[in-house]
Specification:
By secondary structure, the chain is mainly α. The chain has two domains: 342 residues, Na+/H+ antiporter like fold (Up-down Bundle); 222 residues, NAD(P)-binding Rossmann-like Domain (Rossmann fold). The chain is built from 27 helices and six strands. The longest helix has 33 residues. The chain is globular, with a radius of gyration of 29 Å.
């Protein structure tokens, strides 16, 4: 391994470590942080990466190859069939409309017919990596806007295969096929024959994956050597990528196909778990490479042309996406999320542009301009989403016909529940069944409309907004329950309540112990970890199935929860000191086990007559031996 490679690795990683946390701190996506880092270290700004761009493209190619394998691996055919209306309807509509408009734009400004069509297909795609990663970070995949975006991206991922197979048909002249030392086909191969060979290669990949790869993985799995299993899967990926390269396609397409072939096998989850640790790093390297590849010199020499094309493409995509969302009756807030999140040009465009250059459908300047447009559109999208979060979504949401405006909430109850998803609605049903009425708030308009049809008078809006809380009766209410599943939104709501409604008793949902620590730092006392009770209830059922008395198992579960809550409050003070925290955590775990063992010993020795709990606690804390048998002493 050369010193130059190690230096470049240090440069890449240092830029990511500095820029990504800064982007996250100001509320932007980590993707934007990677892109900015790449721009800074690229050949056109600080110059830490060479101007020839060879090393950059190696990183980018490796990132794309691995990323598309994982995307293909997640392509579940059963889920595709369940979402076929959205996938085929929204996906096909968006692809065809965007391709037509982009084709017309480039054809009008003087680009050739075939090249304009190819560019239309390339620029109609959106970034699966950016959209899904951003949606996951913001916890928006479960919303109707998030599901619409996922469906459209799913269709686009599948559409890449016929697009890449179709491109050689646009190279109508035999001398348009560029020479490639790694291609199996001669350069004078007719376009129609080239297309047939590509389709045959794709069919071969599917057959090999179905009848050879899966049985091979089954035999490898029997060895129980995890590293051998992963190596075998990677061998399959690289072999298919090489096959695609030999017939003149990008290796990235081959890895995507390999992922799709393995997606329906019994080894899908094993592969995902093996490769998951590398996924984030590989995507980061990919976006770093994209940022470094942005030719700022080209943009500087042709700023008017670049800006015209960039904003024209963004405008076309925004218009088409908004129209498609309206066609499928997305409400304004969800349609805005869908439109802005999908407005960029996707990473598949890099693959298609490279193939176009290989077919001589693009010259060097056209290829550089296409790369810059794609990368810059990726950079703009997280900014658009930030603007949407801060301003647009609050101003463009219209009042739904079946719901009341914020100022028209006429219900006033002692309890307010913020967040009425699965967690909140279960809580609301329990309270209502026991005669407790509450004011329900939720920020997903589709969820609001559905719950109103089910008989719940839910009101739409962002529960952290002061005007909504006032309209919901926060001044006269006694309890506010935050059932939001987004930790950042929970913290924002807590800040608003502490500042303007300090009399309210706050009960807040937390995803895990670390979210609970953040809430404790803010002074919240009543915290409910969503997995604690369910985990213990499952453990109680296991004890019962193994023959323990139901009463004893249930009581043991209740005691475990009480001890764990006490331990969490004790550990909170040491959570920033890793060494001290781990030491105290071990002590707490040992103490909890001793307490439960002591109680179990007592029940075994004396039946259901429990001793006084305080002596038992002292015994458990002081030594590992159980208390003496009182019945024996008597």
């Amino acid at each position: 391994m050369s010193g130059g490679f190690l230096i470049q690795a240090i440069v890449f990683l240092t830029a990511a470590v500095i820029c990504v946390p800064l982007a996250k701190r100001i509320g932007m996506s980590s993707v934007l942080g990677y892109l900015i880092a790449g721009i800074l270290i690229g050949p056109y700004l600080l110059g830490f990466i060479g101007t020839e761009g060879e090393d950059i493209m190696h990183f980018a190619e490796f990132g794309v190859v691995m990323m598309l394998f994982l995307i293909g691996l997640e392509l579940d055919p059963a889920r595709f069939w369940r979402m076929r209306r959205l996938v085929l309807g929204m996906g096909l509509s968006q692809l065809l409309l965007t391709t037509c408009f982009v084709f017309f734009l480039f054809y009008v400004i003087g680009i050739g017919l075939n090249t304009s069509l190819a560019l239309g297909l390339a620029f109609s795609l959106s970034s699966t990596a950016i959209v899904l990663q951003t949606m996951k970070e913001k916890n928006l995949l479960h919303t109707s806007g998030g599901q619409s975006a996922f469906s459209t991206l799913l269709f686009q991922d599948i559409a890449v295969i016929p697009i890449l197979a179709f491109l050689p048909m646009l190279a109508t002249s035999t001398n348009q096929l560029a020479a490639n030392n790694h291609q199996l086909l001669p350069t004078n191969t007719p376009a129609w024959l080239h297309t047939l060979v590509v389709l045959a290669a794709i069919a071969l990949v599917i057959l090999v994956g179905r009848y050879l790869a899966v049985p091979l993985l089954r035999q490898i799995a029997k060895t129980r050597l995890r590293e051998l299993f992963t190596a075998s899967a990677l061998l399959l990926v690289v072999s298919i990528a090489l096959l695609m390269q030999l017939v003149g396609l990008s290796p990235a397409l081959g890895t995507f196909l390999a992922g799709v072939v393995l997606a329906n096998s019994e080894y899908r989850h094993e592969l995902e778990s093996d490769l998951e640790p590398f996924k984030g790093l590989l995507l980061g390297l990919f976006f770093l490479s994209v940022g470094a590849a942005i030719d700022l010199g080209l943009i500087g020499t042709q700023p008017a042309n670049f800006l015209f094309l960039l904003f024209s493409l963004l405008g076309i995509k925004l218009l088409v996406l908004w129209s498609v969302g309206k066609m499928f009756k997305l409400r304004n807030d969800q349609n805005l999320l869908y439109t802005l999140s999908m407005s960029q040009i996707g990473e598949f465009a890099f693959v298609i542009l490279a193939f176009m250059a290989q077919l001589n459908l693009l010259d060097k300047n056209g290829f550089s301009m296409g790369m810059a447009l794609t990368a810059m559109s990726m950079t703009i999208t997280p900014v658009l989403l930030l603007i949407n979060d801060k301003w647009l979504s609050k101003r463009m949401n219209r009042v739904l016909p079946e719901e009341k405006a914020v100022s028209e909430i006429d219900e006033k109850h002692p309890v307010i529940i913020a967040g009425f998803g699965h967690f909140g609605s279960t809580l609301g049903r329990f309270l209502r069944a026991n005669g407790v009425q509450a004011v329900y708030l939720d920020h997903d308009s589709e969820q609001v409309a559905l719950l109103r049809k089910l008989g719940f008078n839910v009101f739409y809006g962002d529960a952290s907004r002061l005007d909504l809380l006032e309209a919901a009766g926060a001044k006269s209410a006694r309890i506010l329950i935050s059932a939001l599943d987004n930790p950042a939104a929970n913290q924002q709501l807590v800040e608003t309540v502490h500042k303007h409604f300090p009399h309210l008793q706050l009960l807040v949902r937390a995803k895990n112990r670390y979210d609970a620590y953040e809430l404790m730092d803010m002074g919240v006392e009543s915290i409910y970890r969503e997995s604690l009770d369910t985990s213990v209830r499952l453990g109680v059922d296991v004890l019962t199935m193994l023959g323990h008395r139901a009463y004893s198992a249930k009581r043991s579960g209740q005691n475990f929860i009480r001890y764990d809550e006490e331990a969490m409050h004790e550990l909170h003070a040491n959570r920033h000191d890793t060494k001290q925290y781990l030491s105290r955590a071990r002590q707490q775990i040992e103490m909890q086990e001793k307490l439960l063992q002591a109680e179990r010993f007592d029940k075994t020795a004396t039946g259901d007559h429990a001793w006084d709990s305080e002596p038992m606690r002292k015994a458990a804390r002081g030594n590992t031996n159980p208390p003496p048998d009182k019945s024996a002493q008597a």
